[in-house]
Amino acid sequence: MKTTLIVIQDEADHADAKKLIEKLMGSSDPKDRARMVAQARLVEAYERSEWPRTAPALPVLLAYIMDQHSLSRADLVPLLGTASRVSEVLGGKRDLSMTMVRRLRERFHISADLLVPRGRARNRIAA
Question: What pTM was estimated for this model as a whole?
Fold first, then answer.
């Protein structure tokens, strides 16, 4: 089967590739569906290389969680220990201990990967 796909090297190629996917979405031809899937994979690869996802900083993540659950700093005290620890964590001056990570993970059902800084040695996480 011969098919034409757009190799994405810049924004113009990216736009053209997305238009092609839209066009192919309406087709019931199995060849067009296969072409659409292949083009979508190329778009995804380009987007991942151009705009890689990064985890939010811990204070930003916690501020978001507080906002979504209508929580105050005082509401985090049972999870983080003391009001001063809450302040230090939200200010970015203190990392979470594994106990804090466990409590936050259990309370909000979020991945511990979001709570533990990348590249940090396991034994260097704050107590």
Answer: 0.59
